[in-house]
Amino acid sequence: MKVLVGVKRVIDYNVQVRVRPDNTDVDLTHTKMAMNPFCEIAVEEAIRLKEKGIATEIVAVSVGPKGAQEQLRTAMALGVDRALHIESEERVDSLDVARVMEKIVEEEQPGLVILGKQAIDSDNNQTGQMLAALTGMGQGTFASELAVDDEHVTVTREVDGGHQTLSLRLPAVVTTDLRLNEPRHARLPDIMKAKKKPIDTRSLESLGVEIDRHLTLERVETPAERNGGVKVGSVSELVEKLKHEAKVL
Length: 249
Ligand code: AMP
What we know:
This protein is of the alpha/beta class.
């Protein structure tokens, strides 16, 4: 079974995000970029399926600027077999990505598509659901456990107050939650080997996908500054402050 995974290039989650002085967007100059953490979990799950002999090939796809090849190389160092880079220097929204993935699903015919539940830059949480709707595949979102047999994938999802288990007929789309697995780190020899693995770079036009601006980014602002906290010496001092300073009692 072929597994297709989505790999998005985003700002590294350890980095302090800066907003452009004109508030038009986030400033990405000289900013450390990384693979979206939920995509790391998607890649890890695909590798585990290959290690179990269920997946035969793992193909990673990234839609984005030239730099996205860096994250595809990382994915290949981890165990992905080959990568597709759909190059776009323009901003792509979830629906654009889902439409690209729909074309790739048509071409590649994967048995399973694993995406992150959300990209930590835009926080959209939409692409997997949109891809399922466009292709007619079943969807198991926020997977915290996954098991594949010949014709089905069983997905355990964390829902309010418990777990829900779904059985989806393959091919299907699954999106990963934090507790699905703990991704491994790439080893140096594998990073070297990954340099030789193929990345097929294509344009949006070659797939017949045109960016359709459904959304305009109006303004980005940093959160309001918060005042620092204070340590109180006693319960009575705390009650005093809550009454007279915070005025919440
Ligand atoms: P989103 O719906 O934008 O929050 O993204 C959810 C997931 O869809 C991500 O974790 C990726 O697996 C996939 N995805 C979103 N955008 C891209 C992209 N530009 N390239 C590849 N995969 C993407």
